[in-house]
Fold this protein.
Amino acid sequence: MAPGQFRFERFSLDVRDRQLKRDDAPVELNARYLDALALLVREQGRLVSKDRFLEEVWRGVPVTDEALTQCVRTLRRQLGDDAGRPRFIETVPKHGYRFIAPVEWIDPEPATEGAAAAAPMRAPATGGLAWRRFGARGAAGMLGGGLAGVFIGLFYGFGAAPEPLQAGIGAASVLLVLVCLCLILGLIAGAGVGFGIAAAGFAPRRSWLWSLVGGAAGGLLTGAFGKLIGLDAFNLLFGHSPGAITGAAEGALIGGALGLGAWLASLVPGPARLVPSFAAGGLSGAAAGAVLPLLGGRLMGGSLDLLARQFPESRLSLDQIGAVFGEAGFGPVSQVVTGAIEGLLFGGWVVAAMMLARRLAPDR
């Protein structure tokens, strides 16, 4: 059994000292049951077969299936777990068991002569494995953002397409341009937020705060950079630019909301299920997207409307979307609703993609 310390929810398991604690209070377990728990925790997210329990915990001593069942039943009781709705130990019928709660692997730094050992650090925060996990999850966030961008582009493309066709530029052209634009922006925004959230994995302790801060920082930098490049491009091409397009503040709020959504998704029992992950990220993103227009911010819809009004020769118009909500133009109700839709799609796909990457490369 590999030495080390593990933390999950309110529990800490010290394999070296052979002790399980809940809120620093010892939890009583006999030696064999402690070995069984250490095996499950060490293989977090992966199936541990009955044969492996017999080989590594009972070490070849002949026992019945009831002995393993009793062991797991005792572990669940000491952890406050429920077999019907497991938070820690999931039964895989006829095969074995799986530990499904998020786990931090902690090891103290080696003590140096004349100095005490350094504070415990999470092992996953060091080494090539941590960097590969960071890259995989950040890249997954980028791809999720690109997929969300396609859906957002389709939404605005169908809603803002000119009708009837004018000057040879029709609905298909507007649709194609908006889908390509939103795809590129979605990839950029997804990369910023995704890598920001993934960077929280290097923190000494996993918490919602680090995830939120990482997402907000990534969104802020991406929003600021995107706005700077966009304004320079408009000034270069047209001699003036719409100054109130989406920028750093909007990126920070959306990114922070997605960081919180990703943390909530990581708490879902089981190996990173996509529907709950999409729901956690989507609802967090939708809330931020709806609040932003009320605070004076603009997402894609508000920015497109601003561009259309500052460039009257444009064929683009979002007035027809406003008409659906009984507004003469793309008014405040339209901005709140479309902001929530954008946040739902962006947050849902980014977080779901990152949780899929987490499922393929679990914390070890």
In short: Residues 108-127, 164-168 have pLDDT under 50 and may be disordered. DSSP finds eleven helices and nine strands in the chain.
